[in-house]
User: Fold these one by one.
Assistant:
Number 1:
Amino acid sequence: MTTAVKIDLKNLSPDALVGFLAGIGKEKYRAGQMIRWMYQRAVTDFSDMTDLAKSFRDELSKRAYVSMLSPEAMEVSSDGTRKFLFRLDDGKCIETVLIPMVGGRNTLCISTQVGCAMQCSFCLTGTFGLERNLTVAEIVNQVCAVRAQHTVDNIVMMGMGEPLHNLDNVVDALQILYASTGYDYGPRKVTLSTSGLVPEMFELGSRIKVNLAVSLNATTDEVRNELMPINRRYPINELMEACRKFPLAPRQRITFEYILIQGINDSQADARRLVKLLHGIKAKINLIPFNEHTGSEYRKPTDAVMRAFQTYLLDRQIVAVRRAGKGQDISAACGQLKGKLEESF
């Protein structure tokens, strides 16, 4: 006799959960109850969902389960940054970082893939290669696990992986994070960062609302080709045109992440070209000093160079924020904690 495979309910978007429940003869509103139990109350055992009839709970236990992640390792920085490593059911590892912000709010940086296929030369994660996409449950469970111990005010999909390379699961995860009966984050509190997959940017904009961040990091195709191989497929001008067409709310801006690397992309000529590239785009620039790590020849610029770059942008009415380096005394760069633990096995 073949045993039916149980379904993880955290892999289901709110609409998919409605469909699953309809398949066992349950009303639409039950999905809201289930989401409340799984997310607001962090319950994984159907027997504890006390406002559901016992027969309903028994039926659920035969057909489904509710997953949860627990960190295998954690590092805490002197600035309060916490980096978690989660080991998945198949033994693969992902990282999640909780970043304290000004005003006492916390931002959670979550992963969307195991490894990454983009091979950006400044990123440690790229050296692992892409192993697989994360499931919807594995994406949202990073939020669940950290919220069990800490406040999470904002979420950024900027961890391991390229979110638009896992678009379907990312969209479903966003719908779960937005659910009013669950965490109720809303699009203004969630940011998705992409290296610039142009067709997927258009698809994302047509399917769901989310703050968009674009990892730019260069002002010429020659330099961006070196730093980010995806640029050979979607060069800078094509990427910037996609940004101009991306649907934005009236006061919404696209964030451009610009990692400043000494002698590579930090000159005043780069600043001038960046101003021209941003023409016609509602933009904000995050200037980020390169996070030095073992095995990389890149170095971060001096403070004076960073200040001069920012000043040039500000003087031309471009919103340019110097993002403070966080977690400098722990394995803060994407992939560092995973690399450290795997060296110990």
Number 2:
Amino acid sequence: MVVAHVTTSKRHRRPRESAHLVDVRQAVKHYESTAAAFTALKGVSLQVDAGEFVAVIGKSGSGKSTLLNIIAGIDRPTSGEVIVRGTPVHLLPERRIAPWRGRTIGVIFQFFQLLPTLTVIENVMLPMDFCHLFSPRERRERALELLEHVDVADHAHKLPTELSGGQQQRVAIARALANDPPILLADEPTGNLDSHTAEAVFRLFTDLVDAGKTILMVTHDADLARQVTRAISLSDGEVIDEVVNQRRSLVGSD
């Protein structure tokens, strides 16, 4: 089993305030096991402002998913700081991380991660239930509205296994939007989809950014990376390149 090694010497220092929506400062993530040690991130810094659509690209093992995980509070940096919407995530106690994440960040995974025993609408309602947001009736109404927004409302009362991969990913996006978080983190959201469905999901992302959401997306797709605000390249746990794109809206394009 891999065990995270955590350095606490800087953990209790009060971080400097940040003007950025997401501010990762010299993040290091080191793993140790009885067999070997591995450093996934080597002093990575990344700033993202509201309304940006940022792609993180790199080969497998470059640290992309680890970077998203520390921003989401799913994992903690060994050293360095992670400040999201003014909150020092690396300093949050365990009992506060999940409620904070539920209200601040929507996470979208490559393999959807829908609960198979819950219907589609119940999966979308789950984050609202967990964070005690809205009344039970409002949760159901909001979930149905979100499913309509991503064009799968007709499947609201089906189980996830009855849907195609593209439909399941749309449900996952609706679930990520349930609590109206300002930030979406997407880890290879199109990696398990055919090219036509992947393009449709990407168009949905651009619509969300145009509506004011901020998205960080891990991807292997160089073509998609050229269509976002910025593309950050990672290699062996370090930022090696950054490209600023003139992103055009895909809304209504052929």
Number 3:
Amino acid sequence: MERKRLGVLVSGRGSNLQALIDASQINKYPAEVVVVISNNPNAYAIERAKKSHIPVFVIEREKFSSKKEYEEKIKEVLLNYSVDLVVLAGYMKIVGKTLLEAFPWKIINIHPSLLPSFPGLEAQKQAWEYGVKISGCTVHFINEGVDSGPIIGQRAVPVFDDDTPEILADRILDEEHKLIVESVEKVCTKKFKILGRRVVFEKGERK
């Protein structure tokens, strides 16, 4: 089996990156992380990549005169590593036209809420403040909007009365690690159709 090549964009701790790295150690897993890009030079995700001997690039938005120029550099790195699928794993920038056009329906993101509820920043805190009894996480394809792309998969978690936003965030994060691994596997191995905001997976395997 020829594995799909993943490029992972990160900004922070990189625990979802680590979940993908760990999954790629399993022989039957259909994908492997071949390059990591961080917009934050202090992100701990960089250390995770280095420990696993994965090439890592720090590309800071502030060092480019425009978003297009910034994303052109990211695109250059991803293309140089022949990336099949781009995974946003705690990447705290909105993806623009340059990357969307370079990787159509090949960029996925993990978000800590059951979309379409609570898009944007601090989704766990939004859910907690709103008083919902069920929250969770979503993996979706990226489009021009904010957390509005077609949904690949979701996992639900309970919200308990004595939760804090931080406790809830940790509970959701545990499920994120599982969901990102499952979702990458599905996208890499199964045929699918995009119907509005839904991703419908077919029975046949991708070739």
Number 4:
Amino acid sequence: MTDTTSAPQAGSKVAAALRARRDAGTGALIGYLPVGFPDLATSIEAAVTLAENGVDVIELGMPYSDPVMDGPVIQAATQRALAEGFRVRDVFTAVREITARTAAPVVVMTYWNPVEQYGVRRFADDLLAAGGAGLITPDLIPDEAAAWLEASEATGLDRVFLAAPSSSDDRLRQSVERSRGFVYTVSTMGITGERTELDAAARTLVARLRERGAQNACVGIGISTPDQVTGVIEYADGAIVGTALVRALRDGGVDGLGEVVRALSAGTGRPVG
């Protein structure tokens, strides 16, 4: 079996996107939207709109019936997608169409049960064939991820594990060693959603990850304004925005989403327009 105790970044599409932003002197913007909201075709257009307006890495959420980490805005969106008939195969359709139209890497955020039900190696093979870059697995910890580690080694897909302020030093070490692409740094304890102030714990957590060798640490949960994006990229490699984008798509459609993304992108310090 391939040694999976460390995760070099060579060949990682996501790491390359983050490195390009770092080399340019700006941070990266990672944007989350659920597949199938408000319907499959619109969700594909919305994801392309993210890339066209400043998002560097697209995070596609796979709707799930028990989204324990998601706040009410994202929960409502994913429940609508499920009601509209979302199926796991729709993820691969979306990734294929999005990657045909934009160079931004696409990672899928998914709870682990649907991947197990589909078949771990089959899921990895189908994601790779569709042009996907990897998976974010919020409820899968590295020491219980043997099947995914093996499949991701075989396919070269990125694997993004989470680190939280409550994580032990040993758990942080595991997340750093076994993540490829970046470590998803949870800014605060709790579910996703917009917050007026980001917890200072996020800055401390990124520093702890750096001490353990993290090449790329991106901060998510609670980021919703350009000023918050600016603050996060002072110490992290990227800012992850979800709820604010889902709300923008819900309330303003694809055009309204584009306006919000352009504003958030300005927070990274790069020219807009």
